[in-house]
């Protein structure tokens, strides 16, 4: 069973009936099949040669808009002569038409082309028409595309019986008493009229025109998701009044699924017309694998890793309450193997002061791991490292630097060594370094092992445009001895940073060695000052980030500098 929406000029409960006498109201009904107004057309309505409606067009100051129609009532008396004059077809005259409706809502005149006149004799029936309301849909079947609905007849008017006819091709229904009558088997998604025929006086017939009962799209619910394949594009519209909200936020959503070959599957809404949101689930009502709000402007792109056996469910919705027309495209890429340290339990151990090359390409977020506090938005691609501090240390420094042209982030978080409760164990977090990398420093404890998380936003492959992407980076950790152990041996300063030509080092004791490494871990410069001060000529080095390793006595310190 699915929801059916009853529409008639945006009304849900439809009442009919009126009191007729020698004076009554007739109605001018103007229609535009395209829905954008009359495009310059106007019409005159004359009663007994006197203009009562002059150059009328779609104008809310004169009449009432009803969907793609516009109606204006005018007073007449029984026997009056009505003349209509269509004043030209306008730019798109073929889209427009009009009808004159009697007091009983029966069409007594019409036109659909330019410069046409119609003469009508008014008949204000001296009778009481039937009265009532159309309301509750009592049974619906969107699969069979039929529905039943109730009519509550409150008055038979002046007749002893009323026959309910329709333009849907179904048999008429005879009514001899007031009360609820159920009309059955009407088609969904089809416009039709219902007429309440006074069996004793046709002048008191009442017509309700333009009834339509709408079924939602077939994929309104997750259980009815439409299967999609690689390189397939589909179109939909969440602003359809029958589309419901089933997941995520207050915006209506439609559902699709993917159950094809294994790989990196990208669902893109970049060509849509409104501010979209997209969510991927492992089952209906199951775990949300990933979601995305803005990737290409305010449009959404989400990539997930398919295992080639499971079915994945895609919910297309809007940001907050936004709704509109969308274009959904599915693209597939060969599976990208995850890095060896994709999982927290497989963290790679770092050697102090030694730069390690890493990558987030192919990394996926383990949803069981809490997100880092500094980056709780969307999906992250993370990899893991550990480092153990030696005796006498009281500070841990960790530095990441983006090294690959395809990479955009190498964010950092440090945890105590427990993969099961990361949210509680987080010690530091930073994602403010942008496209260069991050630096984190915490107070450390000698002999303690720490977890290090490096991540970028999303999962490979990259969104088509506007999103951050995965790539390579370098990571290095070093430790600072406590003041008592160090005895100020490595209390050195260095400047400037960034450096253009020369880097100056000053220390309280002699600097034995200085080694400079590039982001690939290659030593590019070495010097042995054996003095408390030294000037390092960096003119021959290319622009970029470098690690400067300084040895003072038995202590080694590593700092990162930028060569301009």
Automatic annotation (TrEMBL):
Boundaries of every Secretion system C-terminal sorting domain copy: 495-556
Gene3D superfamilies the UniProt entry points to: 2.60.120.380
Sequence ranges assigned to domain T9SS-like galactose binding in this UniProt record: 340-456
InterPro entries (UniProt xref): GBD_T9SS_assoc, Secre_tail
Xref: NCBIfam families: Por_Secre_tail (TIGR04183)
One Pfam family this sequence matches: GBD_T9SS_assoc
Signal peptide: 1-22
Protein's recorded name: T9SS type A sorting domain-containing protein
Keywords: Signal
Superkingdom assignment: Bacteria
């Amino acid at each position: 069973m699915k929801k059916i929406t009853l529409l008639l000029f945006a009304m849900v409960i439809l009442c009919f009936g009126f009191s007729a006498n020698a004076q009554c109201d007739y109605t001018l009904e103007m229609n535009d099949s395209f829905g954008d107004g009359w495009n310059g057309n106007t019409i005159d309505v004359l009663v007994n040669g006197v203009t009562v409606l002059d150059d009328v067009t779609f104008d809310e100051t004169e009449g009432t808009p009803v969907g793609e129609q516009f109606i204006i009532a005018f007073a007449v008396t029984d026997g009056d002569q009505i003349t209509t004059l269509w004043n030209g077809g306008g730019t798109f005259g073929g889209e427009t038409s009009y009808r004159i409706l009697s007091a009983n809502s029966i069409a007594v005149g019409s036109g659909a082309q330019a410069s046409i006149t119609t003469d009508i004799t008014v008949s204000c029936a001296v009778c009481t028409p039937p009265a009532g309301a159309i309301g509750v849909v009592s049974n619906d079947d969107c699969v069979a595309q039929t529905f039943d609905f109730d009519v509550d007849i409150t008055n038979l008017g002046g007749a002893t019986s009323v026959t309910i006819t329709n333009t849907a091709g179904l048999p008429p229904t005879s009514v001899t008493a007031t009360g609820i009558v159920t009309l059955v088997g009407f088609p969904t998604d089809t416009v039709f009229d219902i007429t309440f025929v006074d069996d004793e006086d046709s002048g008191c017939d009442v017509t309700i025109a333009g009834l339509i009962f709408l079924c939602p799209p077939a994929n309104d619910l997750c259980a009815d998701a439409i299967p999609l394949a690689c390189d397939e594009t589909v179109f939909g519209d969440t602003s359809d009044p029958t589309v419901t909200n089933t997941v995520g936020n207050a915006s209506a959503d439609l559902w699709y699924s993917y159950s094809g070959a294994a790989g990196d599957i990208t669902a893109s809404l970049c060509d849509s017309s409104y501010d979209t949101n997209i969510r991927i689930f492992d089952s209906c009502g199951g775990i949300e694998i990933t979601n995305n709000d803005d990737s290409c402007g305010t449009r959404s792109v989400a990539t997930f890793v398919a295992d080639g056996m499971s079915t994945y469910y895609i919910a297309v919705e809007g940001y907050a309450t936004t709704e509109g027309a969308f274009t959904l495209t599915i693209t597939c890429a060969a599976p990208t193997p995850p890095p060896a340290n994709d999982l927290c339990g497989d963290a790679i151990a770092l050697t102090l002061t030694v730069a390690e090359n890493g990558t987030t390409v192919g990394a996926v977020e383990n949803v069981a791991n809490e997100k880092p506090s500094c980056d709780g938005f969307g999906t992250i691609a993370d990899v893991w490292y550990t480092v153990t501090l030696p005796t006498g240390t009281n500070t841990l420094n960790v530095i990441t630097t983006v090294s690959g042209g395809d990479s955009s982030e190498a964010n950092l978080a440090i945890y105590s060594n427990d993969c099961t409760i990361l949210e509680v164990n987080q010690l530091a977090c930073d994602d403010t370094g942008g496209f260069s990398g991050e630096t984190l420093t915490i107070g450390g404890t000698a002999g303690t092992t720490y977890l290090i998380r490096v991540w970028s936003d999303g999962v490979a492959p990259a969104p088509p445009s506007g999103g951050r992407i995965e790539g390579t980076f370098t990571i290095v950790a070093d430790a600072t001895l406590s003041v008592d152990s160090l005895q100020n041996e490595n209390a050195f300063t260095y400047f400037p940073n960034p450096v253009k030509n020369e880097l100056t080092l000053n220390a309280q004791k002699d600097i034995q060695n200085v080694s400079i490494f590039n982001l690939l871990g290659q030593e590019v410069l070495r010097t042995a000052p054996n003095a408390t001060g030294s000037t390092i000529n960096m003119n021959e080095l290319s622009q970029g980030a470098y690690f400067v390793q300084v040895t003072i006595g038995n202590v080694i310190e590593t700092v990162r500098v930028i060569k301009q």
